[in-house]
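Go through this one:
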Amino acid sequence: MYNACDSCVSGILSPHEAYVTDPLAAEAFRGSRPRIAAIIETFDGVEPMLDSQRGLYFTRSMRATEGRPLVWRWAKALLHVAENISVHIDPHQLLAGRIGKSPRYGIMYPEVEGDFYATALDHLGARETSKGGISQEDREIALREIAPYWQGKTYHERFNKALLPEVRALLFQDSAGIQPRYIVNESSSFRSSLQWVHDYQCAIERGFLDIQREAREKLERLDPDDPAQMNAIRPFYEAIIMVSDAIMLWAGRHADLAESMAEKEPDATRRQELLELARICRRVPALPARTFHEALQCQWFVQLFSRLEQRTGTTISNGRMDQYLYPYYAADLAAGRITQDRAVELLECLWTGMAQFVEMYIMPQGNAFTQGYAHWEAVTIGGQTRDGRDATNRLSHLILQSKRELPLHYPDLAARVHGRSPEAFLWDVAETVKFGTGHPKLLNDEEIIPLLTAKGARMEEALDYAASGCTEVRMPNTDTLTSSCARINLAAALEMVFYRGRMLKYGEELLGVDTGDPAALKDWNAFFNAYISQIHHCLRIAFASQYVINKLREHCFAQPMGSSLHKLCMKHGLDLHSEHIPEGLELGFVDFIGFGTVIDSLSAIKMHIYEEKSITMTELVTALRENFSGHEALRALLQNSPRYGNNQEYADSLGKALEKAAMEYCDKHSAALEMPVDIRYVPVTAHVPFGRVVAASPNGRLAWTPLSDGTSPSPGADVNGPTGVLLSNAASKNYGSIRRAARMLNMKFSPQAVAGDRGTENLVQLFRTFVDLKLWHVQFNIINRETLLHAKAEPEKFKNLIVRVAGYSAYFVDLSPDMQDDIIARTEHETV
């Protein structure tokens, strides 16, 4: 068995590395947590299988209800799904529910991508990353009954038809809108909605009988002489009544199953567990939860049913679990109904349930952007209460303990931190970070809360935000934007300056603006303005695409259950996918990809061409065209320029200027979209496919290799330590504008750098610096480079090695070689 200590410089492993490389570790975990180990063994290493049930029953209902209002049809379809889909209670589980036949599964969303089934289902196992399978039976059902109905009706097809020709030409390489260009990239056509956080507290405290009662009362109060109310609002409340019936009926079917299993169960202890589970499923989610176990089961039913309802941006976030579950945990402890160990076991039953669901994207770009079965069912802990007090409690620490113990990268975990976060909480967070699975990611109240209030949220709403997606946040009952937004390839825009609006990848096709011969750009201002003109052109295309997205979505999607848990939807009788919901906060965005790559490139151009005049523009373009072959000295010169991530104003100020120019465009043109548009840096794994279309860049990056991720420095560029990285991130921000949003930041440390209590203390101080600088997000890999190299060379020995990717963690061996190399190349800091 490989021992990383044999080759790592420090001789120190993270606890996770030690677990992965210790042949006895799994046995030790099995001995300490036998139930959870037994559950994991049922799906660990199992190929995820695409299940047709949801797609089949949804399609049959939609076929039968054509002509009715969409939200009504959606609820009717969910009722049909709830009545017919197979129900499951896994062996050893203390929570009921699984929505696929296989122990590890994905489900079909034909309303989004049914037009791809004929060409893509046979290739699920041959994909570069996020591979999967499908049974012959499910394949035949998809091709024979599901896909034919959706032909011409999918959101993807309707969106593509609605685009202006010049917009489609920059988004896609083909007229059918199948193969993205990865220059300006829309992300709406492979999902129904952006990431989302439901108001789980509403379901847990009220139950769906009470939600249904409210809908009935609102329905009865409608004016029968008002045609708008009868034609638009009446179907919404009818849908809420129907979808409430659906989720309660579905829970009842699980209760029936639990009782049936109990009758056949020979083990008395397990029989009692099943009978208790049946009792719980008879109660929730219909009625308010009374215990911690009931609250968890209610939450799980809502989360699972939400996946049946629609494809949200990967998976549904879990919200602030340490807040809405804590009263039940505390009451059970006080009454002697639960122990700390039992609570952890229940939480881990929930985590394993989440780990069985895999979001299996069928469309090429969805799969390319979410390598390693990306998932963001974020559990948020810490932060502040709605009245501004520190919110950490015993459950916050219990969730951290569970995260250290469980050998899975589920769930995603986010810790909210602020200037008054208790030292004990930060210490516990640091110890969990040191474990080495990339959890938790940190979100900064001191940046996020003031920004949300400046954008129109009330203070108590902003104080109650939860992590949602990669590095984004949501305010339940306040946020109303579900429309996915665009990504822009900053490095592609720069390449178009060198080739007069063209790119080497795409030949002589004019894609951007012809800004003329780059050699004729006589000074730095002329060059920078030419680049900004390319950025503005990309933004113009992004805005044009977004206009179509915003107008089209409410005609293609509905979300009755999600809407039932949103106070504004219930108040106004509008589905969450409505273009506008009164009193709601719509926060649109454009994601910039390749920030560090472009800052370093601009720095090299400014210094060496326009200031020192050590090279000419012609020499640079020639070297770029030839991928630096034969131009190694010039490449070394370029790489020796001031680089982002080192607290060097020369480079950082260029990022700030670029961001400012984009924000000014957004400020000027957002009104046309009837929503504000922010600048965001959340690539997921888009920086890999985006890099594959970009030739060599002036920072010395070779052609077709990944771009920098988020607001992280280019791999290897940051040489002044972790504080330099944080300071550069701060210096490149336009703090005076509210058009800024999430900034993803990756950092990597060797286990030696954070060893012992001194290492923990140093991490805590780094967290404090992060808070003081008012940065948005940071996440960590604690791992030896040598371990990653061995894992790439011998993947069969490291199948359980977890790494932080981009706002989520994944198994290293499930990533593409490019993504693996990107993680290996990230600067490994030896000190904190």
